[in-house]
Amino acid sequence: MKKMLFVAFLLIVGLQACDQRSEAEKIVDLAIEAHGGKAFERSQIEFDFRDIHYQIYKTADSFEYTREFTDSTGLIKDVLNNSGFVRTLNGTRVDTLTEERIGAFSRSVNSVAYFAFLPYGLNDPATIKEYLGEVSLNGENYHLIKVTFEQEGGGEDYDDQFLYWIDTEDYYVDFLAYSYHTDGGGVRMREVSTSQEVGGIRFQNYLNYKPENKVTPVEDLQELYETGQLELLSEINLENIKVKSLTP
Q1: I want to staple 154 with a disulfide (CB 3.0 to 4.6 A). Which of 31, 126, 143, 192 is the partner?
Q2: Which InterPro entries does this UniProt record tie to the protein (predicted)?
Q3: Under a CB-based contact definition with an 8 Å cutoff, are residues 87 and 78 in contact?
Q4: What's the CA gap between 55 and 61, in Å, rounded?
Q5: Terminal-residue alpha carbon distance, the chain
């Protein structure tokens, strides 16, 4: 009996030694599992956001994001994937886009996909995750995770900073805040307003807040939120959500 217990003890110690993840990485992994886990990698997601139709597919090493909408010129389709960005107009490729416009369109598509797929993208190779400890917000306890990005592989927005409030019990991401430097820069804080599960994936809508001063440190946003000093800027709502399983 003692020998069996000793073997079990060695097994537990061995498993713990093999787990080299940081505390932040462990918490993010639990959040990804709570929001859908492997379903993120096995699904194509469709939804409408502000009268634009999106399709999203993403795995650990490949992705393809598309959006379609109609304007005065006709049907526009944007595709962003590992190979780059392509825009078509009524089915014909548009080859007259400047690098500046390609960058702007790519950032726009990527931004919507990034937030819709949270927290799955927090394990992208370029992410740097830091655990800031437990905090209380709206009477609930949260793990506070800071995410920054390596310059190599972090895209044009590698210097953006994000904070995620992950519930200590259910591991849902209830709040997030971020700073950005493109398009004039600024900071935002988002609060989950509603959620729904489709195809095994949790989708969340948000209330989107901003401070009076756009150069406010992202770390100050929780206090400003709790003291009512953030302005409600917009609502982030995904509509007509569909999840198509890509597994046999």
Answers
A1: 126
A2: DUF6503 (IPR045444)
A3: yes
A4: 17
A5: 46
Tokens of 52: 């634009």
Domains of the chain and CATH, by start: 23-243 (2.50.20)
From residue 239, alpha-carbon distances to 3, 45, 148, 203 in Å are: 58, 12, 29, 10
Contact yes or no for 243/44 (Cβ under 8 A): yes
pLDDT in tens, 56-109: 998 878 899 999 999 999 999 999 999 999 999 999 999 999 999 999 999 999
Going by pLDDT thresholds of 50, 70 and 90, the confidence category of residue 155 is: low
Q: Phi and psi (nearest 5°) for 214?
A: -75, -10
Measured CA to CA, the distance from residue 85 to residue 18 in angstroms comes to 40
244 token code pair: 């198509």
- Among candidate residues 54, 52, 75, the one with its CA nearest the CA of residue 63: 54
DSSP, res 90? T
Give the predicted TM-score (pTM) of the model. 0.86
